UniProtKB/TrEMBL annotation, chain B:
PANTHER family (UniProt xref): ACYL-COA DEHYDROGENASE (PTHR43292), ACYL-COA DEHYDROGENASE FADE34 (PTHR43292:SF4)
PROSITE patterns to which the protein is assigned, alphabetical: ACYL_COA_DH_1 (PS00072)
Signal sequence coordinates: none
Protein name per its UniProtKB record: Acyl-CoA dehydrogenase
GO cellular component: a single term: plasma membrane
GO molecular function: acyl-CoA dehydrogenase activity; flavin adenine dinucleotide binding
Length: 354, 386
């Protein structure tokens, strides 16, 4: 996904450059940057990229939306853009129109489950829900006796306990206790909690890949500026090899994430091949967040460990994003089970399916 | 962005999938006929001349080359499919692999027309084997320290010196080698080496086998004593081999062979754990498959760049760095997980035999065809650090 491939990404990058500059945000202890950024994104129709025109959105393609999330990762954007996009996407699956304002999705973990009661109310607890505190509405995937349903819920009807993830972004526990949704419809065939987790996982993978691209960028720049032992540290072979490995991790993350996005954008259904792509992306990007982030910090030394420096905006978010919509351990177990159930001789045909 | 390292997702075109079916059917026939055992990567007879000819007859050698030289003018993506299917099946590709991947493209670019017309069709028919003469006893990763001399004489050059670690030299019909034609200059220590086509199996060349820690004899010492090479066997610019060597690295370094060399142990592990693995096995297999999938997508992406006429040297180096480290670690990770395989698993013995061989193979994977250190240097240069 080249940066100038499409108008959606171009628009977003201009907004991010103007209103989400990491250094400016890092200096702003009061969070005054948030409202103008969200307003600009909303006016450009970006949070509802994946919602068709007739449901209140801007009707961008899946591919454009994925590219937008990658760009958001490059700026470590800390407003509920990805979350609102996912919420809008989920609602649109059931032809539910999206309201204005911030949204998030739940559950955000494959382990949590929301149930639909006979009286049409929703109950259950979802942990680690990103930006729930900021959300005006929740897009909920729940289970009723007739299968999965998709619901739009007024966030004020839910009980939200605040929490922060490793990256200092809201990651909250949301409890629904017999909450009547604004709208509720059956989920279409092929859309269930696993589908939501795979979509969310690919979104996070693209964000992680974007954050790694920026970590590589600022680490290379820093190594060409910082002098130690009377030469730029970029001239030390040990540093060069570390940065080469960071480039590899960044490239692997980007390749895995963009490949999965491309697979979803062009798939007719969430079949085994798409499952392989999406699960692999989350696993590999999470591994890259750990390995690559560690190198970026190593190159920066103590300055990168300070709140003043912008590195943590990328490194900690990339680590935090590993946890959302199923950790790499979760997906590895699930992917391993899938591979085992298909049998040894079906492994290569699966890997070589695209 | 400092680093525009993009690995755009490539979807293999429909004709690749048709081709894949043909290759799988062909390999299944060969296996059924007893040509090779896909579960035995450690066989002695890695050279299979008849198999090589049958692959050639299928049109799967030199497949991207012009038709007038025996090629098929097919795409790099189609070649990719053939390569990966052969590799995964553990097919005996030794005789034709280097010629198809590397030597043919070098000849296409630098050899005179009559030599191309003579040699390339024979590669395409699977008749001839190539070796690459790069390393010397005191020149490995530091290619430009090569000392084997090519001294100008009437109508050609006399070669004196020794190449070493030369894979397949004992069966090769030709070698593409670099020899020293001039001394390096003060300004450019890479100056003075020339690429040559060498006809093997002639007086003046002595090939001495070298035993490897796997128990195999795949590489050799090759000693040249007043060996004559005619003028028309010079490939490219005299003294200017350094200009030619780098752009071809993308072909050599990004293919599926750079992460699939020990793949068989993963398949066998999946077989051993059965359809209902415990959590530990499932997690281990899941991670390995995710890593494998990611590398393959990167590698396919580089094939797409080659097809588009680009020279993705840095991207290819990244694929080889990550790929070879992975295939080196794979037998050890599989061994970790195999410790919990039931004693009753029917393929336990096969897995153990394979692990024994893969673990012995592993150390070479990050050395051959460009060491990890060299690759990271190339990547660092691409990042603007050198």
């Amino acid at each position: 996904m080249a940066e100038s491939d499409n108008i959606v990404v171009e628009t977003a990058e201009k907004i991010f450059a103007d209103l989400a500059d990491p250094q400016t945000i890092n200096n702003d202890k009061k969070g005054a940057w948030q409202a103008p950024l969200w307003q600009a994104l909303s006016e450009a129709g970006l949070p509802l990229s994946w919602v068709p025109d007739d449901l209140g959105g801007s009707g961008a393609s899946l591919a454009d939306g994925f590219a937008l999330l990658n760009a958001a990762g490059r700026f470590a954007v800390a407003v509920p853009l990805a979350e609102t996009m996912l919420a809008g996407w989920l609602l649109a699956q059931a032809k539910i129109a999206s309201p204005e304002g911030e949204m998030t999705v739940l559950p955000a973990s494959p382990k949590d489950r929301i149930t639909l009661d006979a009286d049409g109310s929703l109950s259950g607890r979802a942990r680690g829900v990103p930006f729930a505190k900021a959300a005006k509405h929740l897009a909920v995937l729940a289970h009723g006796k007739d299968g999965a349903v998709i619901a739009l819920v007024d966030a004020s009807k839910a009980r939200t306990e605040s929490g922060l993830n490793v990256g200092y972004d809201h990651s909250d526990t949301v409890t629904l206790d017999k909450v009547q949704p604004v709208t509720i419809k059956p989920a279409p065939d092929g859309v269930d909690q696993t589908t939501l987790m795979l979509m969310g996982g690919v979104a996070r993978s693209l964000q992680i890949a974007g954050a790694l691209e920026s970590m590589l960028d600022i680490s290379v720049r820093y190594s060409n500026e910082r002098v130690a032992f009377e030469k730029k540290i970029s001239k030390f072979q040990a540093v060069q090899h570390n940065l080469a490995r960071l480039a590899g991790e960044s490239a692997a993350a980007l390749a895995a994430a963009t490949s999965a996005a491309d697979a979803i954008a062009n798939a007719k259904a969430f079949d085994d091949a798409v499952y392989l792509e999406a699960a692999s992306a989350k696993i590999r990007c999470a591994e890259a967040a750990e390995k690559g982030g560690a190198i970026a910090h190593q190159v920066h030394g103590a300055i990168g460990f300070t709140m003043e420096h912008i590195l943590h905006r990328y490194s900690l978010r990339a680590l935090a994003w590993r946890d959302d919509f199923g950790s790499e351990s979760h997906w590895a177990v699930e992917l391993g089970k899938l591979v085992a159930s298909r049998g040894a001789d079906e492994l290569w045909p699966l890997v070589a399916s695209r | 962005m400092t680093a525009a390292l993009r690995f755009d997702p490539i979807r293999l075109p429909e004709k690749c999938e048709q081709l894949r079916k043909e290759v799988r059917a062909f390999l299944a026939e060969e296996i059924a006929a007893g040509t090779f055992d896909p579960h035995k990567p450690n066989r002695e007879d890695t050279d299979a001349p008849e198999f090589s000819r049958r692959v050639g007859a299928k049109g799967w050698l030199g497949m991207t080359w012009p038709k007038k030289y025996g090629g098929q003018e097919r795409s790099f993506l189609e070649r990719y499919v053939v390569t990966e299917e052969m590799r995964v099946a553990n097919a005996p590709t030794r005789r034709f692999f280097v010629a198809d991947r590397q030597s043919g493209p070098v000849l296409l670019k630098y050899a005179p027309e009559h030599i191309k017309m003579d040699i390339l069709p024979r590669i395409c028919r699977g008749e001839i084997c190539f070796a690459i003469g790069m390393s010397e006893p005191n020149s490995g990763s530091d290619l430009f320290a090569a000392k084997t001399r090519a001294t100008k004489t009437d109508g050609g050059y006399l070669i004196n010196g020794t190449k070493i670690w030369t894979s397949s030299a004992h069966i090769a019909d030709y070698m593409i080698a670099i020899f020293r034609t001039s001394q390096p200059t003060k300004e450019n220590r890479r100056h003075g080496l020339t690429q040559f086509l060498v006809k093997m199996k002639q007086p003046g060349i002595q090939v001495n086998p070298i035993g490897q820690i796997t128990g195999q004899y795949e590489f050799n010492e090759v000693v040249f004593t007043d060996f004559f090479v005619p003028d028309d066997h010079v490939l490219g610019e005299v003294d200017g081999a350094w200009k030619q060597a780098t752009s071809e690295l993308a072909y050599e370094r990004s293919g599926p062979e750079r992460f699939l060399e020990t793949y068989y142990v993963l398949t066998e592990l999946v077989r051993a754990v059965g359809p209902n693995p415990d959590t530990r096995s499932a997690e281990g297999i899941g991670r390995l498959v995710a890593q494998l999938h990611t590398m393959r997508r990167m590698s396919v992406s580089v094939a797409g760049m080659l097809q588009a006429g680009k020279e993705p040297v840095v991207e290819a180096s990244i694929v080889k760095d990550i790929g070879t480290v992975w295939e080196q670690q794979l037998p050890h990770r599989v061994r970790d997980l195999a410790a919990f395989v039931e004693e009753t698993a029917t393929n336990r013995e096969t897995l153990e035999r394979q692990l024994d061989f893969a673990i012995k193979t592993a150390p070479k994977l990050t050395i051959q065809g460009g060491t990890t250190e060299v690759l990271r240097g190339i990547i660092a240069r691409g990042l603007g650090l050198r």
